[in-house]
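tl;dr need the bound structure. longer version: we got a ligand (geranylgeranyl diphosphate) that a collaborator sent over and nobodys looked at where it sits. i said id run it. heres the input, straight from their email, havent touched it
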Amino acid sequence: MTFEQWMRSVLERVEIALDNYLPAPDTAPAQLHEAMRYAMLGGGKRVRPLLCHAAGELSGARTEGLDAACAALEMIHVYSLVHDDMPCMDDDALRRGKPTVHVQYDEPTALLVGDALQSQAFIALTAEVLTPVQQAALVRELALASGSVGMAGGQAIDLASVGHKLTREQLETMHRMKTGALLRAAVRMGALAGAAPDAAQMQALDVYAAAVGLAFQVVDDILDVTTDSATLGKTAGKDAKDGKPTYVSLMGLDASRALAEQLRAEAHAALLPFGERARRLAELADLVVNRVS
Ligand code: GRG
């Protein structure tokens, strides 16, 4: 199977899994459930589910278990986007090429969509296709990655840093928490949904995930200044306008591109001990660095 064929088959599975793990649209209160589906379905690159499936292939995980883990990861990710777009945070009107949830509905609905998606993610992880041991391990991974020592903590640092000059080290810490933690969890959860890797293998996957997570952010900063809103499906140029520190503002475009390339090489090197079994993870590192939106 080519990488494109593999990606297409995973993306099809993810869409079905999201539909299955979300409450039906006519479940009361119908407007909230409709808004959750508006936020979740038919958009986004699904990078976290792709990473999770690729790591799951490496550990021989059952696809049904990976579907549950992927649904949970994407629910947490979308909750964070919905809240991040609200006027009290980034105040953005465009996401995944369509009006953000608070624009399409209203602010209280957007708040509740995020809250409810967060709960729904953990419901998905109690799916019977995962063993009780796997359920507990995955719940812990996702809770740690999304909470105050992960994504939410990173967002707090981000909000506090607007208009301030950050060192490269501070910028890296912020991104490691804000976006890196969930990307890392995607890899770890895929691995844990199968025959759990040993400590050395998990460490290698962490090195891979850290490099890919940072590369993802560096590329995001590059695209923010080089690509238009229509291609991105979100407002371009917003970071600079909002006075947010970015890799491009800190080190310039060329050095940022070189850094993304260096991180791609680090990700590949970390996968060497796994050989051919890590092929999809290696291809995903290339995709993250070469993406155009
Ligand atoms: C509100 C607790 C809380 C956290 C928000 C992730 C996040 C933290 C905010 C998103 C802001 C942002 C644009 C960050 C830059 C990197 C990023 C996460 C981009 C969006 O992720 P993609 O590119 O989006 O994977 P799609 O739509 O493709 O899923």
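gonna send this back to them w/ a short note. The radius of gyration is 18 Å.
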